[in-house]
Amino acid sequence: MVMTLTPEGVAKLKLELEVLKKERRPEIVERIRHAKEYGDLSENAEYHDAKEEQAFIEGRIIEIENTLKTASIVTKKKTEHIDIGSSVVLLKDGTKHTFSIVGSTEADPAAGKISVDSPLGQALIGKAAGDSVNLQTPTGSALYRVVAVD
Question: pTM for the whole thing?
Fold first, then answer.
């Protein structure tokens, strides 16, 4: 499956990849070397923990590299309709909320980044300022009005 990323999402993944390769990988190699000095590896918890962490780090490096190779990068277009990469201001129950519509790997609702694949993201795609979206939630329906699209 091809991931869709914004330029900000690409930058974030590249930074994570750099940290993993230049900082975390050397740290874990040193931890493994140090743990080996304790002798018998079959009962060496520090060694096994370090090897497990190394496997996680290497797996994450591969995952990020594959994502960056195959990702579809969206560029922000000046349009009045909501699409991935858009920044939107919504009005719900008299309160304004600002969200960015991003790919699923970048989603972070607490930071205002809504996945294009989420129910709200799907409902907003193609809408413009002045449009309303009625979304069914576990607690009932929620009415959002699109105030602005950037």
Answer: 0.75
